Amino acid sequence: MRWRRLLLPIAALAAPPAAGPIVFEELAGRSGLRFVTDSSPTPNKNQPETMVAGVALFDYDNDGYLDVYLVNGAAIPSLRKVSPKYWNRLFHNNGNGTFTDVTEKAGVKGEGYGMGVAIGDYDNDGWPDIFVANVTDNQLFHNNHDGTFTDVTAKTHLSGALHEGKKMWSISAGWFDFDNDGRLDLFVSNYCKWEVNKDPFCGPNPDTRAYCHPKNYPALPNTLYRNNGDGTFTDVSGEMEIDKFYGKGMGIAFADYDHDGFTDVFVANDNAPQPALPQSRRQEVRGGRAASRCRLSRFRRIHLRHGSRLPRREQRRLGGCLAHRHRRRNLSAL
Ligand SMILES: [Ca+2]
Ligand SMILES: [Ca+2]
Ligand SMILES: [Ca+2]
Ligand SMILES: [Ca+2]
Predict the structure, then answer these.
(1) pTM above 0.85?
(2) Cα–Cα distance between 85 and 298 in angstroms, integer?
């Protein structure tokens, strides 16, 4: 064993490998990852044209190589994928630096005007499934284990929540187990109220139409779905009080920020001032806490400005190491 103890200082004294620049090479075209996002830009400057679209890297066929799923837009004003140029695309990783477009075979070209994608094995069969957040109806594709997917949106009740009778513009989503029952639930981030070709006029002058600032559109609440474990989901946004918070939701992140064993949700909002907190930009956290073993209390919201610290009231409530940490770190760094 003596030689092992001697090796450590020798290794420590060894010269580090020569530092050099990290160089990336653009390989998309050569590898077969040929894809062009098409958001259908129009003279009417529809708000979704500025936002398309999301991408997921996941191993849909469990062969050990990450595959690529790219979300795409649709024609305007129909908001339909009337041409293959609007299809979402699934590229299979061949394991040798090349990819093959398997969209048609897999059955995942999608419908409507796409925005975001969330991968999760919602039925715990060991095969990742695809949820697509759309301006139009959302979609869930179940992985059939043979390189194909089945659209199970209707069966699972995940086409999207309504607001004032109209399906909300969903922009991103994430899978997480908010009630710790071992089944993935779904959080969908919704953006703003919008109708095709009815955007307000925004421009540098009366003759030039430009894309409007988000402040010109009313905000929307987000949506939380509970996984029922039988292939269906229930919208529990009202029960969990998710639906009373309005914002222009964009990205989502999950973490158990207070170490209570229940995963919390962080939503990054696009400029969404509200009367109670008139900052022009903020981030927010919603924490779900257990009231008993089988019943969850409602989510509640903690407002934070960019770079702000956890409020004193929250520090006192949470106590312990969390409050200690937050006195030193603002939440935007989490
Ligand atoms: Ca793969
Ligand atoms: Ca699955
Ligand atoms: Ca669950
Ligand atoms: Ca928590």
Answers:
(1) no
(2) 43
